[in-house]
Write a structure and sequence with these properties.
Distance between the termini of chain B: 63 Å
Helix content of chain A: 25-40%
CATH superfamily of one domain in chain A: Type I PLP-dependent aspartate aminotransferase-like (Major domain)
Order of helices and strands of chain B: HHEHHHEHEHEHEHEHEEEEHHEEHEEEHH
Strand order of the largest sheet of chain A: 1-7-6-5-4-2-3
CATH class of the largest domain in chain B: Alpha Beta
CATH architecture of the largest domain in chain B: 3-Layer(aba) Sandwich
Largest interface: A-B, 193 and 195 residues
Number of strands of chain A: 12
Number of helices of chain A: 16
Oligomer: heterodimer
Strand content of chain B: 5-15%
Shape of chain B: globular
Strand content of chain A: 5-15%
Radius of gyration of chain A: 26 Å
Order of helices and strands of chain A: HHHHHHEHEHEHEHEHEEEEHEHEEHHH
CATH architecture of one domain in chain A: 3-Layer(aba) Sandwich
CATH topology of one domain in chain A: Aspartate Aminotransferase, domain 2
Number of strands of chain B: 15
Helix content of chain B: 25-40%
CATH topology of the largest domain in chain B: Aspartate Aminotransferase, domain 2
Shape of chain A: globular
CATH class of one domain in chain A: Alpha Beta
Structural class of chain A: alpha/beta
Distance between the termini of chain A: 11 Å
Strand order of the largest sheet of chain B: 2-8-7-6-5-3-4
CATH superfamily of the largest domain in chain B: Type I PLP-dependent aspartate aminotransferase-like (Major domain)
Number of helices of chain B: 15
Radius of gyration of chain B: 25 Å
Chain lengths: 501, 450
């Protein structure tokens, strides 16, 4: 157990240095009247710089990143993040830019955003991009608000959005936030959308949109995708591409060509921007030209071409849905995505998908004999296995995942998609070399062997992590969501010596 | 590997893609660059910008150029943090989970509220999430938002809530940088889900938050305070004046300007609103041996469990930015945060006083201010901004971009980085400009062409 930074605190310790006041001092009461000021200081930690550094270094060693090993979380695309992208994103010419600088001082930034938008449009096979959304889910909401604006401009008021039963949870949640109702469509026996069910549900005038992940969360490319898009278009709806799985098809097939009208990309998946332990990411969306008038402001406007092109932020767009971000998006993340694409080029991106799909099929072949594979097809960049056969030994998929931790392997995504019992969703990604994949396969074999021989090794796992199995039920039933201080009850502004130990 | 898979070529793995939609040609993208070439190209592009950090900048408007200490880079640069995923396997992610728990504690301490989530996208989207929360809690449709809340936050609020049909009603300002409380009183009724004010306001004024809270609560509405976390070393925390929800943008705490992102949004609420919080929350628990540990918790609020009935669609947080803020706030500590707040207040007061000695410059923001304030100029603010940019000054924000009738108003922020010498020189430069604008601009044009 590591003490919290608040528990480390000792009155009078400090790490900060501030410049001396070089203007004539005025009484604070004259500047900010007492009734506007806080009377008791916030109980922030008091630590020296070395304590601060050691604390967070200790915490970092209890974490696990892609730099340490494979991370085969399905639908998360935990690929290696090239170091050069970190270095170039830290250039002062990017990170020192204020969003309200005059446009003539930020031409390099606007050029980068314009070019990245055009690259993404080319990869998607569509026309215009907004880089504002902060994440995939935010891209979904943006896309659905564009959908709403599109239908409203045409005088239509459809109320429903169709979503397959394999969809990510963000899809239905975004539908609600956009003011639509969810209509679920079933999967067929091969794991794709059941086209007959879709036809029955695609009632003209009622359907605003269909949201599809392709390849889907089973790792399968929907063989009927062209027909599916046609069904929705004939019903007057738009078709939305959840790009969470775009790592499978770069340079192989384009959503726009399949019939999609709106595409989001997760730069933190497909374009290798680091996940940051949960964020920041970016969820830019690319749209068909019919949706361009509705894009959020500002749109980057370009005058001229090539080296002499000038850029400005265009707010004068009367049909725009408005603004999805305070400023222009997660710029620092977008710089990394831009660098990734420039480093790889067209053939490099295609090799990314080739490697991603080969690696996934290789791992699937390697574990086929120890776990159930419910959809026996060539997979794309990921596949879904089931831990259901282990139930006879009293072992659940959760236990299998925890035991994988002891083998030095980060477990796959578990219990998703919902239509597969005891699901394990495995995405090795394009950057893992063959020895790592072989280790991963070996770890699955060992753990399944242990399940048969000594199931307690799984049900009580992990044994080698900084903590043993954590009690998640207790966390939810008796929520403790912040540090408690010994002086909480009386509210006294005593020093920091009395933290709960 | 192909043999193990049972295919002859990579192309065989893509047979499920229908013939008609297979891409037959290469994507049209620039040729790939070797790492050295890429670095040079990125340096060239970045070199086309003039970073505010290398100018004498008075730009604020929600993004502030405070010094970022080296410990922030060193610790957020640990790849165990920045190359990790969301902590779905808590036993392998105790570092980030504990850091988020500490972050939540920090936000609760700063805001004086009971619970915080693990962070949101930014200030504008945090305000929109607060509106969704108020709508769910009160089952009312109308959000009253002060006209002196950040104009971009209000635009995001209106955009994101349009789909569900929330009615966003703006309460006008008093002309001096504050909310017109009489107008607020008149606008509140039994249909009001929440009232949102910003402290300090977008124009730098300090609101009478107690009165606004009372007005909201008397009508059964929630009160949302939009705050700058860095201000809360000095200013009264929202929990003390009765706010139910505090939201804001955390950029001022140890995050680089980055042209507006990535930063992070935050949200803290009273205990009774806990189950309506959007996004990730970390909780303390124990492992099977009784040792303390941390997990993502209360997940039945969230999209991956509750799907269309979730409190929000958000599935990420801005963990690395939140970590930067935690490291920064720990570096400043209990003494440093208020000291920095006072330093900004002293410097802003000095600049304001000096500017008001320049002929033609008048105060727009009335009453006390903290780090930011607005002045009226005898020229369009846009013209002043451009003329002074040539001299290496980022004079502030032309407020006319949002309020055409305030095109003579300049909004200035003063962080601890600005020295007296810089401020004195800036005031003199402005004096020269206002003394004879045409001549000044002609000289500036010449200088640009030299």
């Amino acid at each position: 157990m590591t003490e919290t930074i608040f528990e480390l605190s000792q009155a009078g310790r400090r790490a900060f240095s501030l410049p001396a006041l070089d203007v004539p001092v005025r009484p604070l009461d004259e500047l900010v009247p007492p009734e506007q000021r806080r009377q008791r200081p916030a109980r922030l930690p008091e630590v020296s710089e070395v304590e601060l550094v050691r604390h967070f270094t200790t915490l970092s060693r209890k974490d696990y990143g892609v730099d340490q090993g494979a991370y085969p979380l399905g639908s998360c695309t935990m690929k290696y993040n090239p170091k050069v992208n970190e270095r170039v994103a830290a250039l002062e010419g990017w990170r020192g830019l204020h969003p309200y600088e005059p446009e003539e001082l930020v031409q390099g930034a606007l050029r980068l955003l314009d070019e990245l938008g055009r690259y993404l449009a080319e990869i998607a096979g569509l026309q215009r991009t907004t880089l504002q959304p902060a994440a995939g889910a935010h891209g979904e909401l943006t896309g659905l608000l564009l959908t709403r604006a599109y239908h409203e401009a045409a005088g239509n008021r459809p109320t429903k959005v169709i979503i397959p039963d394999t969809a990510h949870g963000t899809n239905p949640a975004s539908v609600t936030m956009a003011g639509y109702e969810v209509l679920a469509v079933q999967s067929d026996a091969r794991g794709g959308i059941d086209v007959a069910d879709l036809r029955a549900k695609a009632v003209p005038g009622e359907i605003a949109c269909l949201m599809v992940t392709n390849p889907n969360t089973l790792g399968l490319f929907d063989e009927h995708i062209v027909e599916i898009a046609q069904v929705i278009h004939e019903a007057g709806g738009l078709v939305y591409y959840d790009g969470a799985n775009a790592n499978a098809v770069l340079g192989r097939s384009r959503p726009g060509d399949m019939g999609f009208d709106i595409v989001h990309f997760n730069t933190h998946k497909t374009f290798s921007t680091p996940h940051g332990g949960g964020g920041p990411g970016a969820g830019p969306i690319v749209v068909r030209d019919i949706l361009e008038p509705f894009l959020p402001v500002p749109v980057i406007a370009r005058e001229g071409e090539g080296a002499t092109a000038r850029y400005r932020l265009d707010y004068d767009r009367p049909l725009s849905i408005g603004k999805m971000r305070t400023f222009y998006g997660n710029f620092g993340v977008l710089v990394r995505a831009y660098a990734y694409i420039r480093g790889l080029g067209a053939q490099g991106l295609k090799r990314v998908s080739d490697a991603a799909v080969l690696n996934a099929n290789y791992v699937m072949a390697g574990i086929r004999d120890v776990l159930e594979i419910p959809y026996e097809r060539t997979c794309m960049h990921e596949f879904v296995a089931s831990g259901a056969p282990l139930k006879e030994y009293g072992v659940r998929t959760l236990d299998l995942a925890k035991r994988l931790l002891d083998k030095g392997v980060h477990p796959p995504t578990i219990y998703f998609p919902l239509i597969v019992r005891e699901a394990l969703m495995i995405e090795p990604t394009d950057t893992e070399p063959k020895p790592t994949l072989d280790n991963l396969i070996a770890a699955f074999h060992e753990v399944v062997e242990e399940a048969k021989r000594d199931p307690q090794l799984l049900t009580e796992a992990p044994f080698t992590m900084p903590v043993r199995r954590l009690d998640e039920v207790r966390a939810a039933r008796q929520p403790v969501l912040r540090q408690r201080f010994s002086d909480d009850e009386d509210g006294a502004a005593s020093g920091q010596d009395g933290h709960r130990r | 590997m192909l043999a193990a898979v049972g295919v002859e070529s990579i192309d065989d793995l893509f047979v499920d893609i229908p013939e008609g939609v297979r891409l037959r040609t290469d994507l049209s993208l620039p040729a790939p660059l070797a790492e050295g070439e890429l670095t040079a190209e990125m340096q060239r592009l970045a070199g086309m910008n003039r970073p505010a950090t290398q100018a004498v900048s008075f730009l604020g408007g929600g993004v502030y150029d405070h010094y970022v200490p080296a410990v922030v880079d060193a610790l957020t640069g640990r790849s165990e943090f920045y190359t990790a995923y969301t902590p779905y396997q808590p036993e392998r992610s105790q570092g980030m989970l504990q850091a988020i728990f500490e972050f939540q504690t920090m936000i609760c301490e700063l805001t004086g509220l009971d619970v915080s989530n693990a962070s949101l996208y930014d200030g504008g989207s945090a305000l929109a999430e607060a509106a969704f929360l108020a709508h769910a809690e009160t089952r009312r449709q109308r959000i009253l938002v002060s006209g002196v809340v950040h104009p971009e936050y209000r635009r995001v609020l209106a955009t994101e809530t349009h789909g569900v049909g929330l009615e966003i009603v703006e309460v006008q300002g008093d002309g001096g940088g504050l909310t017109d409380l009489a107008a607020l009183r008149a606008a509140i009724d039994g249909q009001t889900a929440a009232v949102a004010l910003q402290q300090p306001t977008f124009l730098g004024g300090l609101e009478d938050m107690e009165t606004a809270v009372q007005l909201a609560h008397a009508a059964g509405a929630l009160f949302i305070a939009v705050v700058d976390p860095l201000s809360l070393g000095l200013l009264k925390p929202p929990g003390e004046y009765g706010a139910d929800v505090a939201v804001g943008d955390g950029q001022p705490l140890g995050n680089y300007l980055n042209f507006g992102g990535p930063h992070f949004g935050f949200m803290a609420v009273r205990e009774k609103l806990l189950r309506r919080l959007p996004g990730r929350i970390v909780g303390e628990t124990v492992d099977s041996q009784g040792t303390r540990g941390f997990v993502l918790t209360l997940q039945t609020r969230e999209q991956h469990i509750r799907r269309e009935r979730a409190t929000s669609n958000i599935c990420s947080n801005q963990a690395l930015n939140a970590l930067a803020a935690l490291v920064y706030a720990s570096w400043l500590g209990k003494e440093g945060l208020p000291a920095l707040g006072e330093l900004c207040a002293q410097k802003a007061a000095y600049l304001r006083q000096q500017l008001l000695t320049v002929p033609g410059v008048r105060a727009l923001t009335q009453g006390p201010v903290w780090r930011e304030f607005a002045v009226r100029l005898p020229l369009p603010a846009e013209r002043v901004v451009h003329a002074l940019a040539v001299r290496g000054y980022l004079a502030g924000i032309d407020v006319g971009r949002w309020w055409p009738d305030l095109s003579d108003v300049l909004l200035l922020a003063v962080t601890e980085k600005r020295t007296r010498a810089e401020m004195d020189a800036f005031v003199e430069e402005l004096r020269r400009l206002l003394d004879d604008p045409a001549a000044y601009e002609a000289r500036a044009t010449e200088a640009r062409h030299d």
